[in-house]
Design goal:
With 175 residues, the protein is mainly alpha-helical. It is 53% helix and 0% strand. It is extended, with a radius of gyration of 21 Å.
């Protein structure tokens, strides 16, 4: 499902799995089938589950707004003095393997896939990389004249994380 339409997978499968309040999204028709509009889904969207979902999302958005107002402009304050703010950069790149193992299959599932389904794992990584490249945007210029920063969190993507021997063994079919 991910390979045929990643957005559909994320909305109708992934998000409902990780956020219980989003389970009504599983009932949506395929997003691919909505080219002509979503009139056929209006009855579903007006049902009690989706009305509750809308209220829950509105509450979550309000909480997020309150949180951001509480912390003020910490990111801007740090940026003013040239310090990189936590979790804030002008551009970010994520390792495809880290993305997959962190969000979709977990570490154990991803490692097993390296040996049980290496072709599908590579195909998925190439699909995600293609999506990332197509969605890439230039970093915004720093308004304060500080050097541009790019974050590349690599807790699962560093080349030293997996040995060349395990990669070679996997590509030759050895266990």
């Amino acid at each position: 499902m991910f390979m045929s339409d990643p957005s559909d997978f994320v909305i109708r499968r992934y998000l409902p799995r990780i956020y219980g309040s989003l389970t009504p999204l599983e009932k949506l028709p395929s997003l691919n089938g909505m080219f002509g509009g979503f009139e056929g889904s209006l009855g579903l969207l007006n049902g009690p589950e989706f009305r509750k979902l809308a209220k829950t999302l509105a509450k979550a958005a309000k909480e997020q707004q309150d949180y951001r107002e509480t912390i003020g402009n910490l990111h801007d304050d740090l940026d003013q003095v040239g310090l990189p703010a936590p979790f804030y950069v002008r551009a970010e790149s994520r390792s495809v393997f880290r993305y997959r193992s962190s969000f979709f299959r977990g570490m154990k599932g991803s490692m097993l896939d390296m040996y049980r389904r290496p072709d599908k794992l590579i195909q998925l990584c190439e699909k995600v990389m293609d999506l990332r490249i197509r969605g890439a945007m230039p970093a915004e210029p720093d308004p304060n004249g500080f050097p541009k920063r790019v974050a590349m969190p690599l807790w699962r993507g560093d080349k030293s994380f997996m040995s060349e021997a395990s990669v070679s063994a996997n590509s030759t079919g050895r266990d």
